[in-house]
């Protein structure tokens, strides 16, 4: 979760600065290490980040604030563990 949080923070910072989501090609250094990033709805800024490592997968879909998602984990609308 914490490792995925780094990528999510990068996405959120870019979105705050530019008003749009970064394209997947801009995040290539992250995506080669078990991450998946999908833009679900560019007009609303909705996206999905999935991280697989060591047989564990976490998913962040933006339905929870990042800090809350990092703390609660488990089976939630904001992620799965």
Characterize the structure shown.
The structure is a single chain. By secondary structure, the protein is of the alpha+beta class. The protein has helices spanning 2-18, 28-31, 66-72; strands at residues 35-41, 46-53, 56-60. It has a 3-stranded antiparallel sheet, with helices on one face. The termini are close together.
Brief sketch in words of this structure:
The chain is α+β, with helices and mostly antiparallel strands. It has 3 helices and 3 strands; from the N terminus they run ααβββα. The longest helix is centred in the N-terminal third of the chain and has 17 residues, at 2-18.
Order of helices and strands: HHEEEH
- Structural class, by secondary structure, is alpha+beta
Helix content: 25-40%
Radius of gyration: 12 Å
| 3D shape | globular
Biggest sheet details: 3 strands, antiparallel
Q: What is the fold's blueprint, element by element?
A:
Blueprint: H1 2-18, H2 28-31, E1 35-41, E2 46-53, E3 56-60, H3 66-72
Antiparallel strand pairs: 1-2, 2-3
Key features?
81 residues; alpha+beta; 3 helices; 3 strands; globular
